[in-house]
Amino acid sequence: MKKVIFLLAVLLITAVACGGGDEETITVTDPWGRTSPMAAENGAFYMTLNNNSSSDDALVSAATDACATVELHEMYDKGDGVMGMRPVEGGSITVPAGSSAELKPGGLHVMCLGKEVDFTAGTEIPLTLTFENAGEMEVTAVIRDN
Ligand SMILES: [Cu+2]
């Protein structure tokens, strides 16, 4: 009898932990943006996207009231050692199953065109990320120097 109760308890805990099948397939680590003066028109956000599921997902868009327009960008070599940036190919950032995608300075980033707020250290900026499979997710990017 004791064993049955124990098993039931385990099942119950498992069900609660999984939230009834609504487990977090995507987690976002350390969303941040670099400080910049208000005179700087644009900014960027960085973070690591982790995919804990067994199927690929993709970040398809991002939005925030802190920017007039938000785009998903990548840096690329324009030649002669000059780096440029452009919207990501295909319009989305793939997050492979069981792996992660790193958005960092010099690489992939969430581009903030037309800053509506000052990017001073400690400022918290709410971002809405939309994933192909995982749907919408709210994160808070913290502005810091590095
Ligand atoms: Cu950019």
Task: Work out the strand percent.
Answer: over 45%
**Small-molecule components bound:** copper (II) ion
Question: How many helical elements?
Answer: 1
Order of helices and strands: HEEEEEEEEEE
User: Which structural class fits the helix and strand makeup?
Assistant: mainly beta
pLDDT below 50 for ≥5 consecutive residues: which ranges?
none
The first-level CATH class name = Mainly Beta
Given the C-alpha coordinates, what overall shape results? globular
Radius of gyration: 19 Å
What is the CATH-assigned architecture? Sandwich
Helix content: 10-25%
CATH topology: Immunoglobulin-like
For the largest beta-sheet, the strand count, sense and barrel status come to: 10 strands, mixed
Distance between the termini: 58 Å
Can you tell me the number of structural domains? 1
Mean pLDDT: 90
Strand count: 10
* CATH-assigned homologous superfamily: PCu(A)C copper chaperone
Core attributes:
mainly beta; 11% helix; globular; Immunoglobulin-like; 146 residues; single chain; binds copper (II) ion; 52% strand
Task: Provide the fold topology.
Layout: H1 2-17, E1 26-34, E2 43-51, E3 57-63, E4 67-79, E5 82-87, E6 93-95, E7 100-103, E8 109-115, E9 124-131, E10 135-144
Parallel strand pairs: 1-10
Antiparallel strand pairs: 1-2, 2-7, 2-8, 3-6, 3-9, 4-5, 4-8, 9-10
Bound molecules: copper (II) ion.
